[in-house]
Design a protein that fits this description.
By secondary structure, the protein is α+β, with helices and mostly antiparallel strands. It has helices spanning about 1-15, 25-30, 110, 175-199; strands spanning about 45-50, 55-60, 75-80, 85-95, 130-140, 140-150, 155-160, 170-175. It contains four helices and eight strands. The two termini are about 15 Å apart.
Length: about 200
């Protein structure tokens, strides 16, 4: 029994510490580099959100990236999942006066040629990228970008917003329901083992 309990605790510690998962693709392979209607050619991702192995989030603006893809303000955002769980959505909370969800119909999809078919991909303007769509929008500053299918460990995708997300936005990842269920089952198992041990 002690050996079984030790094995479970060691496995939980390994997961909590983060598994060695290869980094996502380089910026050049992550976001499209397609001329926009203004003649501005974006340098792939305008910014990248990375979910790290330990669950923390890093938001970066790649060296040499253009500030937008439309010549005005729109940003294409790459998402790299280096965690051990599948990410089904990101909750974005913009700062005061943020207009990240103020969709005006010029999302990245018409420029990249890879659009979602979901009606909620941003006022049908193609902001969702290949697999993304939006929900739970509150004004133009808060909402969720959902991924169907979710972003698997080591995977990546991109979507677009009306402004940079990295400068004033809080990002909260949402794991797949199956990941949450698995964690819950593990905790119940530990509880049962502890109860059995007491008896």
């Amino acid at each position: 029994m002690r050996k079984l309990l030790f094995t479970g605790v060691a496995a939980a510690a390994l997961i909590a510490g983060g598994l060695a998962i290869p980094a996502g693709p380089a910026n050049a392979a992550l976001c499209p580099a397609t001329p926009s209607n203004t003649g501005n050619t974006p340098t792939n991702c305008n910014e990248i959100i990375t979910i790290n192995a330990n669950g923390s989030i890093t938001t970066t603006i790649p060296a040499g990236a253009s500030t937008n893809y439309d010549g005005v303000e729109d940003n294409v955002i790459g998402v790299v999942n280096n965690s051990s769980g599948t990410i089904s959505s990101l909750h974005l909370i913009g700062g005061l006066g943020s207009n990240i969800f103020g969709f005006d119909g010029d999302g990245i999809c018409p420029y990249s040629g890879a659009c979602t078919t979901n009606a909620n991909d941003g006022a049908s303007g193609g902001y969702g990228g290949p697999v993304g769509f939006f929900s739970n929008l509150v004004g133009t500053s808060t909402g969720d970008v959902n991924f169907a299918p979710g972003i698997a460990p080591g995977g990546s995708t991109y979507f677009s917003l009306e402004e940079p997300a990295s400068l004033n936005t809080t990002v909260v990842p949402t794991p797949e329901p199956a990941t949450v269920a698995l964690l819950g089952a593990g905790l119940v198992g530990f509880g049962l083992l502890r109860r059995r041990r007491k008896n």
